[in-house]
Every structure is written in C-alpha cells, then in structure tokens.
Amino acid sequence: MAETPAHDQNTTHHYLMHYPPHPPRADDPHYRDFEAFRRRTHATAKCSIGEHRGDFSECHGQLELHHAHVEFSLQNGVDLAWLEKDYPGISNPDEVGAWVESAQNLMWLCEAHHRGHGGVHVASASDFEAAKYVRGLIS
C-alpha cells in the first residue's frame, strides 16, 4: 500500500457542556490558595509542555495557571467517588474547593498551550496530548 502523504485537515468539535451551579470566582474562599501558589511558584515557573519536551520553541506568551484535572467551574459537579480513585483522601465535599486550587490540580502553561489554537482549552484531549510529541501539529 502507498503511504498517505502529509496533509492538512480542518477539525471542528461542537458539543454542549452542562456546567453545575458555581459561585463567581471572586467569591471563592479558596482563591487565596490559588493566588498563594501563583506567587510562590511564578518566579521559577516554566510551561509544562515546554518543560516536558525540553524544548520551548513552540511556547509563546505569558505563563498562566491551568486547572489540570478539575476546572473551578466544575467542582460542584464532581463525583467524589470517581475523584477519590485518582486522588485518595479527597472524598470530603468540604475539601474539594481547596484541592481544586492546590498544586495537585494546577500547572503552568504558556498562553499558546493554555488558550491558543492548540491549547488545552481549545484542542481535543487526544490532539492536545499528541501535540506534546508532534512538532507543529496544530495551528
């Protein structure tokens, strides 16, 4: 069989998200934990993708903190039994908010890898994961 030549392909993902009720971020009592982590780590922070690769050539823009596993707006909808399997000790509903704003759930990303075309908030999970290993995959 002949090899498929390199090609470009438009990809669109469209679906409806069902966000649980959540307070404004400014009212979050754990936001101070997020800010403390940011202040404590910002001076030495690097984009997690560039750091993983050992190559920052595709990193662009300012560094931003990303909620790696559970976004702030989704914390009230988390099934604690499911979260507990990956993060033992987090089954207490009164502690989820603090965990969401903790180092276990935060990672530094440059703007490109956070909110850019190939960023974690734009690309599908499988495409974002593949972009860690394929140079220039998404533009």
Characterization of the model:
The chain has helices at 31-41, 48-53, 80-86, 96-100, 111-115, 125-131; strands spanning 63-67, 106-110. With 139 residues, the chain is mainly alpha-helical. The protein has one domain. A two-stranded antiparallel ribbon has the order 1-2.
Q: Into which percent range does the helicity of residues fall?
A: 25-40%
Structural class: mainly alpha
Give the SSE string.
HHEHHEHH
Rg measurement, Å: 17 Å
Strand order of the largest sheet: 1-2
Question: How would you sum up this structure in a few lines?
Answer:
The protein has helices spanning 31-41, 48-53, 80-86, 96-100, 111-115, 125-131, and strands spanning 63-67, 106-110. It is mainly α and 139 residues long.
Q: Which helices and strands, and how do they pair?
A:
Blueprint: H1 31-41, H2 48-53, E1 63-67, H3 80-86, H4 96-100, E2 106-110, H5 111-115, H6 125-131
Task: Name the descriptors.
2 strands; 7% strand; 6 helices; mainly alpha; 139 residues; 29% helix; two-stranded antiparallel sheet
